[in-house]
């Protein structure tokens, strides 16, 4: 993950893209601005990408956006993207392309319980899903062939490499190591910590069927721990992806850090959002060794676009996660504490959580607690 560097200024690329991204990303920006001197002086640089941009100018990810991100930005925030469910000539997802251009090989998604009075009693859950971000089926090598009898066959190439699997495995073990230290410190400080187990990494795969591709992923991640004394205090387990889904919903409290190939990680992290009440609560970062981009887990939600009812919390928490990853842990903690307070109070909840509050209401309530 990009290392923490002391800065006198911070330049953030802001890519709202499509749908509710244009509503939740400004909410995250307002919260970051409210931190004042707690973070370096921050310049927000608006950038274009998305389905709407493709329809206007023929390119979902303009070259200028990539150039500015690489040459002028320290990090970035992404809103949400709409992608057609059918093939459109010349279109490909800009978020997938950005991950490749910036080598953002990990998608890190924390999923934590926050009780909401009178609305939702979440499962006891405090886990991080670490998703490999650059390969698997998402390399998008697909083709259709016509057989002699006229029937068609669709083929997709799935790519798993030892290089990508090893580095995502290392990130998962580093996150588990850090989380273990944070829990130990919390206990020393007298704080209530429900997680009593040692740090743990669960490798998610389906190598009983896909013995070559998933087999390589499994072996590569296991090799990160094997023989490395740094990770001696971390437990390592495995779950077949179907069993992972079942146990995640039945016993979410048993998981700490889960690491998975791209497709499995995408599915289980979206599913895990149901454990805490809504996709509108779950943040993520796309991380590499030299760049980080925050991204709420939810989609573009065109059915509620422009109605000021989208939940901004996933975007706001993504901004906090981005700050923490850049080394600004205290201001990130302040953001999360403010969000937790608003949720625990239960007065300002958007419709996805059973409430009637607007995007603006929730953002204002969080700002007051900062």
Automatic annotation (TrEMBL):
PROSITE patterns: IDH_IMDH. InterPro entries: IsoCit/isopropylmalate_DH_CS, IsoPropMal-DH-like_dom. Residues 11-366 form the Isopropylmalate dehydrogenase-like domain. Keywords: Magnesium. It comes from the Eukaryota. The keyword Magnesium applies. The keyword Manganese does not apply. PANTHER family: DECARBOXYLATING DEHYDROGENASES-ISOCITRATE, ISOPROPYLMALATE, TARTRATE, HOMOISOCITRATE DEHYDROGENASE, MITOCHONDRIAL. Belongs to the isocitrate and isopropylmalate dehydrogenases family. This is Isopropylmalate dehydrogenase-like domain-containing protein. It comes from Kwoniella shivajii.
